[in-house]
Amino acid sequence: MSALDLTPRPGAAPFPRMVVAQAAMEARLMLRNGEQLLLAVVIPVIVLIGGVKGAEHVDLGLSHRPVDVFTPGVLALAVMSTAFTSLAIATGFERRYGVIKRLGSSPLPRSGLLAGKVGGLLAVEVLQVAVISMVGLLLGWDPANGFVGCLLAVVLGTAAFAALGLFVAGVLRAEATLAAANLIYLLLLAGGAVVLPSSSYGAFGRFTEWLPSGALGGAMRHSCLDGGIAWRDLAVLLVWGAAGTFLTARTFRWE
Amino acid sequence: MRYGEKVAVDGLSLSVGRGTITAVLGPNGAGKTTTLETAEGYRRPHAGSVRVLGLDPIADRHALLPRIGVMLQGGGAWSGVRADEMLRHVARLHAHPLDLGALTERLGLGECGRTPYRRLSGGQQQRLGLAMAIVGRPEIAFVDEPTAGMDPAARRTTWELLGELRDAGVTVVLTTHYMDEAERLADRIHIIDHGRLIASGTPLELTRGGDSATIRLVVTKPFPPDAPGSLRHALGDRVDVTLLDELSIVVTGPADASSLAVVSRWCEDNGVLPESLTLGQRTLEDVFLELTGRQLAS
Questions:
Q1: Tens digits of per-residue pLDDT, B114-170?
Q2: Phi, psi of B77 (to 5 degrees)
Q3: Which residue from B65, B85, B106 is facing A106, i.e. has the nearest CB?
């Protein structure tokens, strides 16, 4: 048996190393979980292929080729599923299982835990964007040069949905969070103007533009279809992010 | 320390020496975990002060946390995380963690390293919790009910490891409701009940009672009414007689071998058939019984 030197030698790891460790752990756990993977990659890809193929038979009154409209929308959907639904469910169960309490007595400060969560989300989103873009390109996607706008939309969309997801996870029990996060995801998928543009919803579209889902989808479509930056949509995301952060900071309990 | 209107820990004053094992002993609901969590900075005391390594557990949290190790009473890991992965993660948060291979081997966690947390047995989860508490090489390890749910072999391993930690200079503070654990491990024991400290001392100080001894009588049929009173009278009124339940009585005080004969005769006179009759030194259980009139273990 190798010697175990138990002499005290305490010390926290450097902050960046702790955050990287936490982010890697969060991303690994998210991708290992079958339901989360379904939500993160499988459903968006099915929606993309189904939408593009379906639009060949049904006229949705789209202004552009279906694949060019659907791909940025599905990218927005993927961001929403990870930053909102996956994060809320994971955090809800972390509270339930005492993970957050356990980490609360480790050297990782709460700012490090949050940074780790964001890092984990971004890692998963990079994977999602790679897979969905690949499928889109195979289906003939021809995006405009709107990289900066897309990047801003993903970052602000992630911030807005993550803040809202943490709010839900912080006030509800784990099972209720699971149900609510999935239900809201489905409602926004169907009626939130994320995959389809607000214009497809008729009069209701004037309302969906102000939803975080509609704003994220709109910003992604604007940048991918026409290039440039959708300032109005980004502002809407910013407001949702600020509101979510305020609510979360007021209500979130770590245990 | 209060939860709403209920006072969980009240007027509790105790201190812990460096490089020692201190046991906080008490029945379930006595306030052991609350006491520990106040020292760990999870709870803010409503009155009074707590200092750990000279630091305030809440105000100086960031300075203190790397220096302490905490074993929670349960949970503390993602359900899908593998045991070795969880331990490695906690190790990565520290600057000079223990050698993981040696630690898992020591705690017998080697064979379940790839097992997801939710499929570990209760004892394995406890051992992983202990490993997570000490992997960062803390100066103080707070361990809450470390051997609850462990089999005897794992209990022994845990006791040995806690002893080695102390020998290496680590201060160990543990809660337990097992008196044998406290008696065997601790340098100092604080017995608490209803959130109050009712006795403190080394195991020897607490159990040494001059010429005091304990006689335990267990019978096959319920005792007749007023058995404690009549037995006390038979023994000469110098002892305490406590009815633990309808089948067992404990006598404490200046008792010796001749007292056994008195008890045995009393049984004969009262038509009581003893199942067992033993004479022994005071245990922590007896101390607790004397102080509270209740049994420690439920």
A1: 999 999 999 999 999 999 999 999 999 999 999 988 899 999 999 999 999 999 999
A2: -140, 150
A3: B65
Domain total of chain B: 2
User: Residue A244 is which amino acid?
Assistant: G
Q: How far does chain A reach from its first CA to its final CA, in angstroms?
A: 38
Residue B146 · residue B130 · CB < 8 Å = yes
Residue A98: closest C-alpha in chain B: B76
Residue B185's nearest CA partner among B132, B129, B145 is: B145
E-strand ranges in chain B read 2-3, 6-7, 21-25, 68-71, 140-144, 171-176, 188-193, 196-201, 212-219, 240-245, 248-254, 274-280
Question: Which tens digits make up the pLDDT trace of A127-166?
Answer: 999 999 999 999 999 999 889 999 999 999 999 999 999 9
Output B278 or A6, whichever has higher pLDDT: A6
Cβ(B93)–Cβ(A106) below 8 Å: yes
List the domain range (segments joined by +) for residue B213. 209-281
Residue located via tokens 């919790």: B129
Tokens describing residue B285: 């259980």
Nearest-Å Rg of the Cα atoms of chain B is: 22
Among A93, A98, A105, the residue with its CB nearest the CB of B40 is A105
What is the reported pTM?
Answer: 0.83
Phi, psi torsion values for B217, nearest 5 degrees: -125, 120
Is the same domain home to B188 and B229? no
Q: Which residues of chain A neighbour B90 with C-beta distances below 8 Å?
A: 106
CATH code, domain carrying B277: 3.30.70.260
Q: For residue B102, which residues of chain A lie inside 8 Å, CB to CB? A: 1-4
Report the CATH number that the domain containing residue B181 is assigned in CATH. Answer: 3.40.50.300
Q: What is the pLDDT of residue B11?
A: 62
Q: What is the ipTM of this complex?
A: 0.86
Averaged confidence pLDDT in chain B: 87
